[in-house]
Amino acid sequence: MKFKQKDVLGLEGLSPQEINLILDTAEPMKEIMTRDIKKVPTLRGHSVITLFYEPSTRTRTSFELAAKYLGADTSSVTVAASSVKKGESLRDTARTLEAMAADVIIIRHSAAGAPHQLARWVSARVINAGDGAHEHPTQALLDMYTIREKKGGLQGLKVAILGDISHSRVARSNIWGLTKMGAQVRVVGPTTLMPPEIDKLGVEVYHHWEEGLRDVDVINVLRIQLERQKKGLFPSIREYTQLYGLDQKKLQAAKSDVLVLHPGPVNRGIEISPDVQDGPHAAINEQVTNGVAVRMALLYLLMARGEQDEVPA
Amino acid sequence: MKYLLKGGMVVDPVSKRVDRLDLLLEDGEITAVEQQIEAVGAEVLTMDGCYIFPGFVDLHCHLREPGEELKETILTGTRAAVRGGFSAVACMGNTNPPADSSSVITFIKDKAKEASFPVYPVGCATKKREGEEPSEIGDLVEAGAVALSDDGDSIMNGEVLRRVMEYAQMFDIPVISHCEDMNMTGAGVMHEGMNSTLLGLDGIPSAAEDVHVARDIIIAELTGAHLHIAHVSTAGAVNLIRQAKRRGIHVTAEVTPHHLCLTDDAVKEFDTNVKVKPPLRTRDDVDALIEGLKDGTIDAIATDHAPHRRDEKEVEFNQAPFGISGLETAVPLVWEHLVESNILGVVELALKMAYNPAQILGLPERVIKVGTRANLTVIDPRQKKPVRVDEFLSLGKNSPFDGWVLRGWPVLTIANGVRLE
User: Fold this and answer.
1) Would you call A205 an interface residue with chain B, using a CB distance cutoff of 8 Å?
2) Are B54 and B15 in contact (CB under 8 A)?
3) Engineering a disulfide at A140: which of A165, A177, B152, B391 sits with its beta carbon 3.0 to 4.6 angstroms away?
4) Nearest-by-Cβ selection for A169 from B186, B200, B319
5) Is B319 touching A (CB cutoff 8 A)?
6) Residues that bind L-aspartate, according to the entry (chain A) (predicted)?
7) How far off is chain B from A284, nearest CA to CA, in Å?
8) Which string of DSSP letters, residue by residue, matches chain A?
9) Which residues, including other chains, have CB under 8 Å from residue B276's CB and lie 6 or more apart?
10) Which residues of A does the annotation place in the binding site for carbamoyl phosphate?
11) CB of A246 within 8 A of CB of A220?
């Protein structure tokens, strides 16, 4: 099977077969990462630009290393969020990057839809590294990769996504991806952080952890943006932690071999207690490793498609 | 100049008749309406197959001058109006400076005179459109304002709105309300619902509109003033207005073509040309709007023409300004989607786009009769062509309808006796 997408803007637009292809391709990529010399020439001569309108450490570094391990040339453009209004417009930036013959543009933006607009304006391939509260497809792919690796598959698993669903692109991409792969997805969080009609995406909605986390195989804990509290979406950090912070007590509701994920960066002691974060159920650091592998797979499938069918040896 | 319009179907919103009649216009006045007119020296315009309406009135548009002449000017906006089949427009006062003083109203009237087109300015309800103190309403009316509104900025303080409405009554002009609880809107950029959830965009709940419609109706009842509700977009608002009319409250309402032809599904491509306030709503809302149009709850169709520069719209969705350039697509959109599908008849169209808007603003009655200034809109139902934003006369090319193939284009507009191209 060949990967036929020009861009990867979200998991909404990918088929289960395409998702499987990416996850399967990530396995040999992960093997490359364990070598002494972590470099293959597969994408030599290709240019990858990361265009980040939001601060990010792990996603950006992960993409850049993924591109470098595959032999591509990378370059990064950082745009401070504060200068968006007075600075160069996204459209003009797109024209500039196009003129520099970029092959792939990896964009993160606080505005939902910015990658989709960019993809219309450039002939380069576009990968969405997170757009507002819309999608973060590579995060969901690495989450699914991690679940698959730990649980042997995705079909039939009960997965709870815990926290601020409203403002989470990680939640949306995970919902798309996991439901397509046959997992049973539930979202758990306060009513004020639950977007309207989310149930129509095929998920169960819970507001209390006792029911929401009961017998689940996986808990994906979302980062809570502390500034939401000021907008009246929850009364205090303390109450949020009491009701939704994942600690040992709440963990008891889940299956005994529950897998705990978090996209990072973690607000230690707020959405997850330190003992759970550093405990045996959590796979937060492995997620980071898998993130590089999944992004290598994606870059490979996007850029080397048609040229090679075999994964590099 | 003498024109003889031969063989058109003349639509009369009062008698509710449609008759094949000839029209003779002399020096801008209608001098004969008969089955057969022969006139020596008149330029004959063959109207076979066309409908001749009393001149359409757009009671809600933005001409941007003074202050934002790169978006639109009174000249370009009124030329777009003519092309779009409108014989008069009322322009909102959210200019820079705002139309909160007689000098700005006079400026607009002067520019309109230069453009040879009837423009009826809407004066600001409050000073600087800040929603705090009523503007000099008497002076605005004296200068030519036909209605009061703070346009896109709802008057959030109910007490201020009450005093504006009370005071406006003395001058017999309507207060036009853009109904939106700004606190509930927050950072919203589209309708709140399934699609905003999918897209991760901040939503504007229907309740943000309904709450203010309810409040404004109650204040209209308290004061007895004429409340006109701009661009109704929700099923809830239609119900509230319907009930208010039954109770005898002096309330009128308008709807835009885009709220009748599009739903929030259109946002899925993140095209900023569909970003508009109030936001595009759901299929249920569109159905309620159509029902409201048919049963008379909604009196008028207005464009809310809101031209913006291309580069202003070529930005991220949440940063783009709200608004659709609507003057040049309103008539064919309504014809294609409402008349061709038998939702509205041509008499109802004459009511919604000519007679009622003129009544709401207190303009001369829009009927075709001898002895009146000629205000005519001629539509050719057989003309079928795609919308081409690049050919708009408006400076605002921000239309989501580019490429839509529509029937029923305006082919002749006569505004206050003047035939403009």
Assistant:
1) no
2) no
3) A177
4) B200
5) yes
6) 86, 169, 223
7) 25
8) -----S-B--STT--HHHHHHHHHHHHHHHHHHTSSS---STTTT-EEEEEESS--SHHHHHHHHHHHHTT-EEEEEE--GGGTTTS--HHHHHHHHHHTT-SEEEEEESSTTHHHHHHHH-SSEEEEEEETTTB-HHHHHHHHHHHHHHHS--TT-EEEEES--TT-HHHHHHHHHHHHTT-EEEEE--GGGS-TTGGGGS-EEESSHHHHTTT-SEEEEPPPPGGGGGGTSSS-HHHHHHHH-B-HHHHTTS-TT-EEE--S---BTTTB-HHHHTSTTB-HHHHHHHHHHHHHHHHHHHHSTTT--SPP-
9) B258, B304, B306, B322, B323, B324
10) 58-59, 108, 136, 139, 264-265
11) no
Q: How far apart are CA B293 and CA B255, in angstroms?
A: 8
Both structure tokens of B364? 């001369």
Catalytic residues of A: 58-59, 86, 108, 136
Length of chain B as a residue count = 421
Token output for B49:
């197959």
Residue with tokens 């950006």: A60
Query: Does residue A306 carry a pLDDT above 80?
Result: no
- Inter-residue contact B121 to B61 (CB < 8 Å): no
B201 interfacial to chain A (CB closer than 8 Å) = yes
Q: Count of A–B CB contacts within 8 Å? A: 64
- CB contact B199 to A (< 8 Å): yes
The two structure tokens encoding residue A121: 């304006």
Quote the CA–CA distance of A172 and A163 in Å, as a whole number: 12
Q: Which two tokens stand for residue B296?
A: 């008379």
Token pair 């003009």: residue: A92
Alpha-carbon distance B369 to B421, whole Å?
23
Catalytic residue among B100, B181, B264, B304: B304
pLDDT of B382 reads: 97
The SS3 assignment for B63 reads coil
Q: Residue A207: CA atoms inside 13 Å, Cβ hemisphere, count?
A: 7
The whole-angstrom distance between residue A44's C-alpha and the CA centroid of its chain comes to 26
Per-residue confidence band for A85, with pLDDT thresholds at 50, 70 and 90: low
In this complex, is the C-beta atom of B170 within 8 Å of any C-beta atom belonging to chain A?
A: no
In this prediction, residue A305 carries a pLDDT of: 62
- pLDDT tens, A96-148? 888 998 999 999 999 999 999 999 999 999 999 999 999 999 999 999 999 99
Q: Which of A109, A135, A201 sits opposite B316 (nearest CB)?
A: A109
B166: three-class secondary structure by DSSP: helix
Give burial (CB, 10 Å; 0-12/13-18/19+) of A212.
Answer: buried
Q: Which residues of B touch A195 (CB under 8 A)?
A: 196-197
ipTM for the whole complex? 0.93
CB A50 within 8 A of CB A77: yes
What's the pLDDT score for residue B1? 84
Lowest-confidence range among A34-38, B113-117, B208-212?
A34-38
pLDDT of residue A82: 47
For residue B158, give both structure tokens. 């109910």
Mean of pLDDT values over B47-64 = 98
The domains of chain A, with CATH numbers, are 16-136+288-304 (3.40.50.1370), 137-286 (3.40.50.1370)
Of A89, A116, A132, Cβ closest to residue B315? A89
Single-letter amino acid code for the residue at B190:
M
The position carrying tokens 């600001």 is B124
Using the predicted structure, report yes or no on whether residue B33 has a pLDDT greater than 80.
yes
Let me know: does B106 contact B144? Beta carbons within 8 Å. Answer: yes
C-alpha–C-alpha distance, residues B229 and B251, integer Å: 7
**pLDDT value of position A307:** 54
Q: Per-residue pLDDT averaged across A39-45, rounded?
A: 91
